[in-house]
Amino acid sequence: MFDANGLVILAVGALLCFYGVRSVHLGVIAAGFGAGWMISSLFNATGLTLFLFGLIGGVSAWVVCSLIFKFAAFFVGGLSGAVAGARIADLVQPGDNSWAASAIIIVAIAVSAAFFADKYRARALLWLTSIGGASMILIGIGLTFERLRWIDSPDSAITSITSNAVWVALSVAGWIVQRRLFADRLGIEPRKKAAPQS
Prior knowledge:
It contains 7 helices and no strands. It is an all-alpha fold. Helix 1 (4-19) crosses helix 5 (99-144). The chain is globular, with a radius of gyration of 17 Å. The mean pLDDT is 80.
């Protein structure tokens, strides 16, 4: 038995993790959806509320970014940072989450990520979308498959270590996939084969 809401967050997370740097509009919508969903999930919202917060986050992010497209990298970086910040806030506060502590963590990481993305543009967004998307994938897996709930909400030291290792592995996989697929967008020159020595 699985939760259909989990499939939605899993799909949006995969889109952000493996395709986020390709389209700024798509990245903004996915990151906004993820940020809205994850922030509301910190406070035990139900399925419909999660979806509505995600939808509001995605649409709001796209509208704001369209109005200030000049700052798109800053905005996508901030949203992706908020997604990663929500994951970190959940990890450092086992049990019930404090609004104040969660807000401080999320805002600090989101602002740092926004400035990082504004300064380093596509290369920063490559990392930020991979990390944020990987966070959403873990939540989607945990919601979709009851037996894998521990991957989103670890309940012991071993499951916490494993969950974080999976998060890192997914982030790196997203980085590798996007780097290879969108090398031209990132300004990465393909590696030239070394000429055979005579």
